[in-house]
UniProtKB/TrEMBL annotation:
Compositionally biased spans, kind Pro residues: 193-204
Range of residues in the leader sequence: 1-24
UniProt keyword list: Signal
Name of this protein: Superoxide dismutase family protein
Domain Superoxide dismutase copper/zinc binding residue range list: 55-184
Pfam families on file: Sod_Cu
Family recorded in the similarity comment: Belongs to the Cu-Zn superoxide dismutase family.
InterPro entries: SOD-like_Cu/Zn_dom_sf, SOD_Cu/Zn_/chaperone, SOD_Cu/Zn_BS, SOD_Cu_Zn_dom
Gene source species: Luteolibacter arcticus
Keyword presence, Cell membrane: no
């Protein structure tokens, strides 16, 4: 019994010693800011082919003053064609056709629409316009998603590129098969910035002035002889 009590006390002592180091690691990790109340500053989805397609690229989400800036750069598309691009509910790409990613992300329970409409699925990003080489760039700013894990958060969800154009029809734009996809994750550039140094009180940190020692006048030794 005494051995168990000693072991328990030692365990608590070890945890107490390790606590400052564990807290320091947690505060410097980008995942420490990943919560429903802490929004990241940048997310990214790396787009890879589904099935026999050759579609690849990236979609970057940046937090800006007006909302969320989306920059998509996609290649391998059908030349001179439109391809729908959407955010879907889940980051589960385990199925061969990416159907496991679910439907369009729609936390507001709106009908499907193109980005020009104020009421639409939060995942409705419109269309990519491929050039003659099958490359497309899409840039837009939206204000109906957030870069966190909250109700409107997109972290851990999926970006899907479709075979056809999104025509705005119901229920999901008649966009055809899913030909490429990527899970939205934390960008390496989203690491929390180091906190600014705490200002020191006036005078703190200055080199200490040498101690002033009190000096007394010295009296020369006097040879005093006494006559007997």
């Amino acid at each position: 019994m005494k051995a168990n009590q000693t072991l328990g006390a030692s365990g608590f002592a070890i945890l107490a010693l390790l606590a400052p180091f564990l807290n320091a690691q947690e505060s410097t990790s980008p995942l420490s800011a990943h919560s429903s109340s802490a929004e990241m500053k940048k997310l990214v989805a790396i787009i890879r082919p589904i099935g026999n397609s050759n579609v690849r690229g990236s979609v970057v989400f940046d937090k800006v003053d007006d909302g969320i800036l989306i920059n998509a750069k996609i290649g391998g598309l059908t030349p001179n064609a439109h391809h729908a691009i959407h955010i879907h509910e889940f980051g589960d790409l385990g199925s061969e056709d990416a159907s496991s990613a679910g439907d369009h992300f729609n936390p507001g329970d709106h009908s499907h629409a193109i980005p020009d409409e104020s009421e639409r699925h939060a995942g409705d990003l419109g269309n990519l316009q491929a050039d003659g080489d099958g490359n497309a760039v899409l840039t837009l700013v939206v204000n109906n998603i957030t870069l966190d894990a909250g109700k409107r958060g997109i972290i851990g969800r999926a970006v899907i590129v479709h075979a056809k154009a999104d025509d705005g029809g119901q229920p999901s734009g008649n966009a055809g098969d899913r030909i490429a996809a990527g899970v939205i994750g934390i960008s390496k550039d989203a690491r929390p910035e180091p906190a600014p140094p705490t200002p020191k009180p006036p005078g703190e940190g200055k080199p200490a002035e040498p101690e002033q020692k009190e000096t007394r006048p010295t009296t020369p030794d006097t040879d005093v002889s006494v006559d007997e």
